[in-house]
Amino acid sequence: MSDAADELRARRFGGSWRRYQQQALDAFEADRAGGDHRFFAVLPPGAGKTLIGLEVARRLGRRTLVLAPNTAVVGQWADTWDRRFVPDGAPCGTDRDLAGAVNVLTYQSIAVLRAGTAAPHRRATLRAGSHDELLDLLHPNGRAVIERARGLGPWTLVLDECHHLLSTWGALVRAVVDALGERTALVGLTATPRRSLTGWQAELHDDLFGPADLEVPAPALVKAGTLAPYQELVYLTRPTPAEDTWLASETARFAQLRFQLIDHALGTVPLLTWLSARADRSYAPAGGTDTHRPDAPAGHGDPGEDGRGTPAERAESGRAAGSAGGPRLSWSAFEAAEPALARAALRFAHAGMIGLPAGARLREMHRTAPDADDWVAVLGDFCTGHLQASADERDVAALAAIKRVLPGLGYRLTSRGLRVGPSPVDRLCGLSEAKIAATTHILAAESAARGDRLRALVLCDFEQLAGRPAASLAPVPLSALSGSARLAFATLAAADVDGPGGLRPLLVTGATFAAPRALAAELVAAATRAGHRVGTAPLDAVTVLLTGLPTRAAVALATEFFAAGRARVLVGTRALLGEGWDCPQVCVTVDLTTATTATAVTQMRGRGLRPDPADPAKLTDNWTVCCVADEHPRGDADYLRLVRKHDAYFALGAGGEVESGVTHCDAALSPYAPPDAATSRAVTARALAAPARLAEVRDEWRIGAPFAGVEAASLRVRSGRSLGRSAAWLPGALLAPTAPDEHGPRLAPGYVVAAVAAVLVAALSLLLGPVVALAGIALAGTAGLVATAVGLVRRHRIRTGPDALEQLAAAVADALHTAGGTDTGAGALHVSPAVDGSLRCELTGVPAEQSALFAAALDELLAPLAEPRYLVGRRVLVAPAGARGAVTLAVRSMVRRPLPGAVAWHAVPRWCARNAVRRELFAAAWERHVGPARLLAAEGAEGAAICELMRGEDPFAITAQLRTVWR
């Protein structure tokens, strides 16, 4: 131990610390001063986590073991210790003997399970096994490393990219920590925030590390100039013609079933009749169904045994029973109990296939056609709730037809309900050869924009498919090379981008190192100089396989050629190059993988974040290639993967705003469904033009400008019709519509007095002479003009005062603030136009959860009435159009004629309606910003009548979208 401590004390970091790195070290020192030997930091790729981890270990002065995700990352830790910490000393250890002061191994070196362990026992032990049971799962080689480590402690254990231990080796690593002893210092480094973890992972994370000592998001370091700026781009493609041919048969099979079920050619009950009854909550199958849990038991008895008739009869009479006052769940309760079926019903309603269920409202996620999951939810409920319980031959035939089609949607029907299975359509789109062709197109555009500076990383899931596909996938037109790194490499090597061999790609995986023939001799010579004996073998007409190089050496050699520009494209697998591997010259990343976890997305895109010393203006393009087959319900699966990739990832969006979600790729994209063919082509065309505007995008990042570094929820509102003007300063009577015969034309008292005064002045002037008379007439005329002008100015305020949306948003903001829901009120409200024509409403300067509360409350207020607890009325005066309309409005006001207005009813946000105190504060805020507030209980006679009258109506045609922004 003393030799290791001496070695660590003798070393020091040979560079200077960046500001956020010093903040991390200060946080570590604060922990250590408080007696805490656990340190956890969340930093984006390229931020220098390796340097921070080694410095923390050096300061602790104990023998150190670093566990890293793969051999490439092991090499980087070793190289960083040997080169960046001076003076030279004993090299970093990378062997299982743990002889160095600093040792680096892969997680697999220790946490590999011994062969022959039954899967159920393994899962149970990993979840809840004791310390000894967990260690007993390990391979003997891993146990040997732990036993050797026991006698060499105390240790500092550094877990690099520690999200890995949470998803794969978590429980095992916890057992290893326990085995090394209580004095073990634990350092966790990752780029994945805790909010991305599942419940079980979060529990394990908290047990090991506790809260993060430092968390820095990537946009902060881009704004600070530490990391390279980046943009997210999408290439949307269709399957190849050969793939389309096979897909057409699957599409036709589903289309035929859908036609038969809807048109009552199959079964005793049309599918839509069943769905309508279920969505109106007027019929719940005996025993209930659980459509959001595909493996739930059906739980049905014999038809009619409960005295309510057969399922067919109950479905047919469902609407009548509901409308007759029978028991009915509220929509919110139904949505909570059956989320998948409720979502499907609203999408079917949006498509005009059924009526809008009572009490429901369409949100952004529902304004799209039903997708495969929606059809599965409806078909599953139909089967388990009706068909499986029926002995009618027509229902038996319908059940058999559905069972034949469900595998194409990725499900199979059992006696216990639906179970997830592999979807051939999903598999086809995910591995489509069209995505490889799209990569060539992308790199041609990038090469045209960047020239010799192009360094592109192409990432795939695997080198080539291994083993035989599942029986359900056997008919799919795929080969061992479909979607593979080998196919991408071969295609790019044969492409004529910038002339034959212009891209000069290399292929590096855990098992293979390949290159174009033109580069083979140079690579062999470089490997020989490094002391390796390398052979070659032909792969195809233009590429060769290099043999004899260990994986770590192959990665190092490929990286050297790639960084120098002798190779412009590096093709590899996500496992090897998508995490931990670093090369500052990477400026383009093409994601061909099916990975959607926040960890994988962050890591893959992190490869291009390191600044390039030779290119200070570097901006990285991160491409996602997506294949969509919009004819088939499951043809959107690859697009929905695209959505999940970007769901929690922040990037520069339209207008220079940093936001999460697929809309930062293109504002035309929806998080709920792929665009139509024309929009897809436009999205791809805009993306292919993006590399030509790199300098403009870099300027949009506003590097060096101050930033708050906070996340905020943003509600984007688009209205198909005017919200009207809530003119709170006008008397209430002026806004109330009145019948013409209620009162005749009446001049306002002020104008009457002015007229009388003018007549008197004129009469006196006539008595005193013509000159004075003319002066009096002029004076009276001037007074009349001034009065008219005052009236016009007052009416002009109707057109130039605060917009109704601002008034409503301000009322919500103040109501939340005065009730203690947010730290600030309307003073922090920000309403601004977005580039897509919508209005963006945000509550700034508050924590993310408070801004989310405001956005959700405003969304409820603007939405059509569904199932509100309380209503609030708003007097609406429609703004006049043009100067003529303003004059007409002014004249009608002066003569006390009825003004064009009405009352709009809104739902009081549920948070504000929860108790009497909050309702009073909401009413007060409404009075300040909107006008007289009258709250009605939805359960009262008047409130119920209004809800019934307005149910399903959307008077302002509002579309609202919730987004999360970072600024």
Task: Please give a structural write-up.
It is a single chain. With 967 residues, the protein is of the alpha/beta class. The chain has four domains: 2-216, Rossmann fold, CATH 3.40.50.300; 230-240 and 428-710, P-loop containing nucleotide triphosphate hydrolases (Rossmann fold); 242-423, no CATH class; 799-880 and 898-966, no CATH class. The protein is built from 38 helices and 28 strands. The strands form six sheets. It has a nine-stranded mixed β-sheet, with helices on both faces. Strand 20 and strand 21 form a beta hairpin. Helix 17 (339-350) packs across helix 18 (372-385), helix 21 (433-450) packs across helix 22 (485-494) and helix 33 crosses helix 34. The chain is globular and about 115 Å long. The chain starts with a helix and ends with a strand. The relative contact order is 0.08.
